[in-house]
Amino acid sequence: MSKKIVITVLVLFIAISSFAQSSINDYKYVVVPLQFDFLKGKDTYRTSTLLRYLFKKEGFEVYFDEEELPKELFNDRCLALYADVIKLSGLLRNKVQIELKDCRGSQVLLSQEGSTKIKEYNKAYPVAIKEAFKSIEFLQYKYNPSDYVGSKAKVISKVESIKEDNKEAEQAKAEVERLKKEVENLKKQKALADAKTKEEAEKKSSEIKQKEKQKMEVTKTETLESSKPKNLSDVLYAQPLDNGFQLVDASPKVVMVIIKTAAPNVYTVKGKDAIVFREGDIWFYSENDTKKALNIKF
């Protein structure tokens, strides 16, 4: 029974190793962080330098995450694996694992545990990292350019481009909607302003007409008042004749003789090209486009 278990475990290990080997062989580069999460400070205990050395020894092109990358990798980050050292909990031992992820953060490989009983961290972590790295050495890395990695990078780039285009399209749509609302608000404001201007213009026009009407009434009243005789000496007394009246003043002196016409309250003036007529309660004398009021007592 135990023999079967050993064989099964061995088969699984070989299969997993074969898969991991196939995966890491697709990648040319490894990027190593200058600082791991479980350590304080950059390259503490020379852990980053050690991991870089180990990957270079296996044939990878290795760069720190903070140094200048080659143009090929700078343009396509999916051509690299991204290394990390994970500290595992342990009471009596310092234990770590080495993890490799792709550009999307998916795990490509997780090494075996590397552990040591050494307590001093400056000695313990380098020893544990070297032990964990043995499972990566076992894979015997050999770079084999893969269309899959390139195609995957292109697909990811295309997806990101589509996402960006969609985002820009949504932003443009939102901007169009905002501008539409702004135009509608401006139209409403203009309509309100035009209505207010029209109302004010009509009000002003009405006020002007009212003032003109009042002015005309005052002028008419003033004209009538000024046309009235100012004193009793202006009074003319009508003395009846067969065909009209003679008008005499207080002297008595005949001022004029007025002759009846076919029109009521309209008389011609004898010896002159003039007429006397009544308009309302006032009598007027009109001659050569000149008009003046008369105070006639009948």
From TrEMBL:
N-terminal signal peptide: 1-20
Region (Disordered): 191-224
Top-level taxon in the UniProt lineage: Bacteria
Sorted UniProt keywords: Signal
Keyword Signal carried by entry: yes
Protein name: Uncharacterized protein
Organism: Winogradskyella jejuensis
